[in-house]
Amino acid sequence: MTGFVPTKTLATSKTGNKETSVAVGHESNDIERFDDDHPEKDRQFVTALARGLELLRCFGPGERYLGVTELGRRTGIPKPSVSRLAGTLTKLGYLNFSESLGKYCLGSGVLSLGYAMLSNMDVRQVAKPFMEELAEYSRASVSIGVRDRLSMVYVETIRSSAPIALQRGVGARLALATTSMGRAYLAGLPEVERNFLMDQIRLRNEQAWPQIKAGIEQGLRDYADHGFCLSIGEWDREIVSVGVPFHSPDGSMMAFNCGGPAFILSREKLENDIGPKLVNLVKRVGSVMGRP
Q1: What single DSSP character describes residue 283?
Q2: 259-274 in b/e burial notation, b at 16+ Cβ within 10 A?
Q3: 234-254 pLDDT, tens per residue?
Q4: CA–CA separation, 246 vs 9, rounded Å?
Q5: Cβ distance 240 to 228 under 8 Å?
Q6: Does the N terminus or the C terminus of the chain have fewer Cβ atoms within 10 A?
Q7: Which residues, 6+ apart, have CB-to-CB distance to 196 below 8 Å?
Q8: Contact 176, 152 (CB under 8 A)
Q9: What is the number of structural domains in the chain?
Q10: Beta-sheet pairing, 103-106 with 173-175
């Protein structure tokens, strides 16, 4: 999820009887353009496997069942190919098929993969007590996220015992460009990787790009000056948050955030209190995990 390897979304075009794979963009695919290494020329790229994985990515929160037509629309894959791929994924346990609805839903095989990934992330176990401490202090939520295309995905989140707290849990997706967690992730990247992602963000929303770019650049300045990035109602006007990048000892990149309702966390409190405490939390996690 966190590596600098663009993910290719595949559709097909037919010329005569020949079916050729091409990269396309659609609403569930954040990456709009890639380099010049076409998948059909990449000996390490298996088109059929990529198509199958794209089907699995179509299912989002609140979307339990999707039919062949919708899966084809979202991926750009022809319906006959969608049917074959979905049938294979069903036999392998990654999808389930509802006879009554004529639609597919995610199967337990996907859950087992996700659980294996989460259980092998040592940072979650190390960070949890520190996150619980900060969540209670701030009366907000503290989370860890990793990048998936142009989103950040929560892999751990701790809510405070306060009666009003953010309800987003593990698996929730946040925008990379307008959240403190996403900006912190960008701030922690090498320049070449950050520039690639910023170019993809621009392609995603050309009209709003000047405002988005200004927000990211402010985040970079905040990180350089203070060690954290802010988002004050830019992703959700009622939510404010602070984010800090984290380089895991295994080389993976992620970010922490602390956020909550704007009427609980003022900008001044984020800048002068919660932000520095989150920076210290990340340093403590790194120290326990063996980072200098």
Answers
A1: H
A2: bbbbebbeeeebbeeb
A3: 988 899 999 999 999 888 899
A4: 28
A5: no
A6: C
A7: 4, 6
A8: yes
A9: 2
A10: unpaired
Residue 62 token pair: 């609140």
Residue labelled with tokens 């306060």: 162
Among 107, 129, 148, the domain-final residue is 107
Final residue in a domain of this structure, among 107, 135, 153: 107
DSSP string, 131-182: HHHHHHHHTSEEEEEEEETTEEEEEEEEE-SSSS-----TT-EEETTTSHHH
| pLDDT in the model for residue 112 | 84
pLDDT at 206 over 80: yes
Please tell me whether residues 274 and 135 are part of one structural domain.
Answer: yes
- List the Cα angle 26/32/242 in 5-degree steps: 100
| One-character DSSP codes across 34-79 | --S--GGG-TT--HHHHHHHHHHHT--TT---B-HHHHHHHH---H
Distance CA 202, CA 19 (A): 31
